[in-house]
Amino acid sequence: MTKHIQDTTVLSNGVQMPWLGIGVFQVEEGQDLVNALKAAVRHGYRSIDTAAIYQNETSVGQGIREALAESGLKREDLFITSKVWNADLGYEATLAAYDASLERLGLDYLDLYLIHWPVQGKYKDAWRALEKLYRDGRVKAIGVSNFQVHHLEDVLKDAEVKPMVNQVEFHPRLTQQQLRDYCKAQGIQLEAWSPLMQGQLLGQPELQAIADKHGKSIAQVIIRWDLQHGVVTIPKSIREARIIENGSVFDFELTPEEMAQIDSLNQDLRVGPDPDNFDF
To answer: I want to staple 85 with a disulfide (CB 3.0 to 4.6 A). Which of 27, 53, 182, 274 is the partner?
Structure first.
């Protein structure tokens, strides 16, 4: 059971990935983002998740450099993820996109590089590019994002390297049981984006009752639920108080009954696009 903010899961290739990280989706370039990342590292976070399409890799890189300088940590103490965008899915284009992300971030390597969306007819060429980056030792781990079971099966038919991570929308209204079971069987680590359903669950009465019992917030209960399900989680915030709150989930445990109660809130409801039906 995860007891500390720096506890890690071991990916299928032996790489250690922190259970909890900070996401930066919809956070603009600039000092607020730099300060948020410095605060996160100061308060114990070691994992940062960005993507090319977020258009904030430059500030993320600056935040990383300043956080390292301030903390005395080394680059290898942090776990940095980015993602290749749909327009760059293709063998050569994906290789070039990786270089471009590294340049914006000011880094020599990434810990994890993901295919952002399963664009039909394109993601398999992109996967070959990720395999090359991985075999060449340029990235520590590779994976996918927003892939359903059938997308994963399609990749695995020809893959030489199995995806190590699948980052998907996951929260109490979208518990993804079939996908979770499949990933577990395949040794693919599931990771949650939008764990708090973009704030839509923060007034939920059943969750409030559980939170009150533990003297915690609904956000903390949901993040704890993720972790107890063995799902890596990257809640987004640029407010230091919220960053601290999201990281303060290692001093309590949900009972099996509480876990089941939260599971029962599932409605297969998405706030993000449907991976089987998107047009971008």
So the answer is: 53
